[in-house]
Specification:
By secondary structure, this protein is α/β, with parallel strands linked by helices. It is built from 10 helices and 11 strands. The strands form 2 sheets. The protein has a 6-stranded mixed beta sheet with strand order 7-8-9-3-10-11, with helices on both faces. A 5-stranded antiparallel beta sheet has the order 2-1-4-5-6, with helices on one face. The protein is globular. 41% of the residues are buried.
Length: 284
């Protein structure tokens, strides 16, 4: 199933910045992804939802080649970064190209994965200096601007152990943004946070979306998906089972397994439905 274009003005007619074609992924003898097709427009925010084991994280990791698909084709910003035919054939990417290709995507993980011996500022500077060979002065200026955007300027000289989980995750977002990616990838970015810290990370991501950054997000926070997504994609057993605008997918699902999955969202949404529908009308 190929991704449907979002109806949001400006994004609907934007060029495709990410294209996945027939992505299959095997782990040992188990097939995890069964020929996934997905297109993402520049500036679009796509949220992947589904039960544990449905293939969400595996698909996300295929985009930046942390998982090497068994077969399929991946195009980012007009460049084919992976192309392997089912049953063999195609071409593999040379190892020396992998870092350059990964620079097209910024990845934010469940765990923050910051360098513990570096300050927040040094963590954000590291990629541009070591991978992109940017001058330290320019990288520092850019890193400070990103920390300022994340509300962390006053914490620039602190080490990760001196920061809250929410602050560490915002440093991780700034670090990914420092590489000037074409697409930002988020794998359950709030799942490791205490509930009171989730909101500050979500707010940072909403502001990032408003800035026009192309984003693909794996999350179980369905209320957050409703707020931030242009399109919600439901994965079930390694396939896209249903997709569309969040208002339709989360409030009016048609796929039986999706109905069950969003049931817990509906329990709270029933009371909030007038507000959610009004919010949707304002966003349209």
């Amino acid at each position: 199933m190929t991704g449907n274009p979002t109806s949001r003005p400006g994004v609907a007619n934007a060029r495709q910045v990410l294209q996945l074609e027939s992505i299959c992924l095997d782990f040992a003898t188990k097939r995890v992804l069964h020929g996934v097709d997905l297109k993402v427009a520049e500036g679009e925010v796509v949220v992947l939802i589904g039960a544990s084991g449905s293939g969400k994280t595996s698909l996300l990791r295929c985009i930046n080649l942390l998982n090497s698909p068994t077969s399929g084709r991946i195009v980012i910003d007009g460049e084919t970064i992976f192309d392997r035919q089912a049953g063999g054939g195609g071409r593999d990417i040379a190892k020396q190209e992998v870092n350059r290709i990964r620079a097209k995507t910024g990845m934010v993980f469940q765990q923050f994965n910051l360098f513990p011996h570096m300050t927040a500022l040094q963590n954000v500077m590291e990629g541009p200096v070591t991978v992109k060979k940017e001058p330290a002065g320019a990288a520092r200026d850019k890193a400070m601007q990103l920390l300022r955007t994340m509300g962390l300027e006053q914490h620039a000289d602190k080490h990760p152990r001196q920061l809250s989980g929410g602050q560490q995750q915002r440093v991780a977002i700034a670090r990914a943004m420092a590489m000037q990616p074409k697409v930002m990838l988020f794998d359950e970015p709030t799942s490791a946070l205490d509930p009171e810290l989730v909101g500050e990370v979500m707010k940072a991501m909403v502001e990032l979306a408003k800035s026009g950054m192309t984003m693909v997000i794996v999350t179980h926070e369905l209320g957050f998906a409703f707020e931030i997504a242009d399109r919600v994609v439901f994965l079930d057993q390694g396939l896209i089972a249903e997709e569309g605008p969040p208002h339709r997918i989360l409030l009016h699902p048609t796929h039986e397994r999706l109905k069950s999955f969003v049931g817990r969202f509906h329990e709270s949404a029933d009371m909030l439905r007038p507000f959610l529908e009004a919010m949707h009308a304002d966003r349209a």
